[in-house]
Amino acid sequence: MTKILALDLSTATGFALSANGVVTHGVKKFAAASPASHPGTRYLQFQRWLRERIAEDKPALIVVERAGYFKSLAAQSICVGLRGILLSTTAYYDVPLHEISPSDLKKWATGKGNANKVAMRAAALARWPAERFADDNACDAFLLLQLYLSKA
To answer: Which terminus of the chain, N or C, has less C-beta within 10 A?
Structure first.
């Protein structure tokens, strides 16, 4: 069966993997070890983790939320850096990407294209009450995967 990996890129990146009809999900945090750490540390951590995921999980496709609105310049900078690594790494391993806009995801999950994190989590738990999400990033990755699977 085809394996699909969904990612919600952030310092705390949510991930969800569909493999053999089973969906697993969680969150991986990428942060500098200390304020004195090199500013590129989080990007090296993400690149290493992504390469490991691709090597171990062998996804046929990666679904990712298209970059949208950012609350701060710092958040925008981090997401742009992670996206660049995602694009170059998936190109290197020849893994196709499928992007979903935040508003499409929110509308599919809640009926409102501008739903907040609380509404997104509530919608996920209403549909999948047995799921336990580490945080909103893991929940978003799970929803990205479910949206893609519902249309596939």
So the answer is: N
